[in-house]
């Protein structure tokens, strides 16, 4: 099995991706101010990462590939991932409305949400998805 290792510029970072028709959280681990890393052998996860906006813009990069023999994989212990709730918010169709929602409901600082990317990144961070934005 080919495992790929990805690096992101944002340290501890997560985003959800639709994989197999279901939303799944992908978490990059690192320090708050340093780079974060995520490794996966799941081809669907690899496709989701490599088709994301952040990958296209170079904020996430593939930094390594390695092959893990099948006999090693059969000995690995499967760990059930913890599902995180995604709050889907309807009725918000503008960046300004999303910004106000995040400030009022999620404690965001308005000064940090100065563009669409910042609003969406904060929403991802706190588990909010704006269905109409």
Quantity of strands, as a count: 7
Instruction: Please state how the strands of the largest beta sheet are arranged side by side.
Output: 2-3-4-1-5
Give the domain tally.
2
Averaging pLDDT over every residue, what do you get? 82
Overall spatial form: elongated
Low-confidence stretches: none
Helix content: 25-40%
Strand content: 25-35%
Largest sheet: 5 strands, antiparallel
Helix-strand category:
alpha+beta
Write the element-wise H/E pattern from the N-terminal end onward.
Answer: EEEEHHEHEHHE
Identify the notable features of this structure and list them briefly:
single chain, 133 residues, alpha+beta, 2 domains, two-stranded parallel sheet, 7 strands, 31% helix
In short:
The chain is α+β, with helices and mostly antiparallel strands. The chain folds into two domains: 2-75, no CATH class; 87-130, no CATH class.
What does this structure look like?
The protein has 2 domains: 2-75, no CATH class; 87-130, no CATH class. It has 133 residues and is α+β, with helices and mostly antiparallel strands. The protein is elongated and about 50 Å long. Helix content is 31%, strand content 32%.
């Amino acid at each position: 099995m080919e495992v790929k290792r990805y690096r992101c510029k944002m340290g501890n970072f997560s985003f959800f991706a639709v994989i197999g028709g279901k939303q799944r959280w992908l978490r990059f681990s690192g320090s708050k101010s340093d780079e974060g890393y995520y490794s996966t052998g799941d081809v669907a996860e690899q496709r989701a990462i490599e088709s994301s906006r952040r990958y296209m813009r170079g904020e996430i990069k593939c930094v390594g590939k390695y092959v893990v023999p099948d006999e090693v994989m059969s000995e690995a212990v499967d760990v059930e991932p913890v599902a995180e709730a995604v709050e889907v918010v309807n009725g918000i169709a503008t960046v300004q409305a999303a910004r106000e929602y995040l400030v009022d409901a999620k404690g965001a600082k308005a000064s940090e949400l100065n563009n669409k990317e910042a609003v969406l990144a904060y929403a991802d961070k706190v588990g909010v998805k704006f269905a109409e934005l």
